[in-house]
Amino acid sequence: MTSYASAATRLRDVVHSATRGLVDREQLAELMVLASVADEHLLVVGPPGTAKSAVVRRVANALGGRYFEYLLGRFTEPSELFGPVDLRKLRDGRVEADVTGMLPEADIAFLDEVFLGSTAILNSLLGVLNERRFRRGHTDIQCPLRVCVGAANALPEDESLAAFADRFLLRLFVEPVPDNRLEELLAGGWSQESLGAGSTAEMSDLDLLRAQVVHVRMDEARVALADALRKLRGAGVLLSDRRIVKTQRLVAAATVLAGRQTATDADLWPLLYVLPSREAQLSAQEVLRDSLRMATNPTLRSAVEQVVLQPVSRVERLVQAARSCLDDTDGVAARTIAEALLREIDANFTVPALSPELAVERARLVVRVSEPA
To answer: Cα dist. 202→9, 35, 315 in Å?
Structure first.
């Protein structure tokens, strides 16, 4: 296995560990990884209490980088994010910020209610997000930031805030866990306290893959991407030229995470997450159904499945989820999750339609739920 493939495998394991017990949140962890490798940022939109911060915190902890998290409010001061003025240097006539432990030093950042920041905060954030630089007075430093995840309950309607939101190339819209997975949610939540440390990777794994993005051969995928964009325009789903150009980095990052150096139509799926609204993403799923039917990624299975909504991607995710459940030593929680997985498998596939892999895992799940409690 190459060093790149090993790094991608470790990131895959981090995603699984970070989302144990959290239902329907694999997408968020996977898109964090994709954004980090592509040197882009992720905006998560959804109601409070949907485990946004929990997932980001777990992924950051598993990667071991410096992490900064803050809940913004109307009265948040810039110094709360970027550090106070260094008073010792101010006496000498120099205005410098003490950024120790603050956002400019972070490898991974999570900013909750990001659109509540003041104009001064958002202006400083633009430099950090766009250029990875923080400037204030005599302070001018390069930031090590790999990814910033912003969260909000809804997209902003104000035009100036919409322009700021555009700096988050990836968009994920989350909803509360659906009715058919409530048992799984309850079991996972109950077992949270007993979960030990999961799989870990290192920031060097991200950096190794980030360095490969510029070497991806894009010619074949570029033709397919242009065709997909024409279909979207024909359906009235529009993207700015800026977002169109930057989508290529996401496609290249998806290619690297899939263990390849040549992008194909199998790597176009990040395009859906670039669309800025939930409505646009839903429309694009129908418009691009044929264009994205070949989408696949062994490292980011859940993110792909939600884009293509095809049986093949669903099978891959269910097989992985079943194996994870069967490896769980917590009997009560694992049994509940196994029951939920069996319901999902049987709701989506008849027994003759099961792939050999999924049939094997289904049989193992049946044995698990049949065991005495």
So the answer is: 12, 16, 29
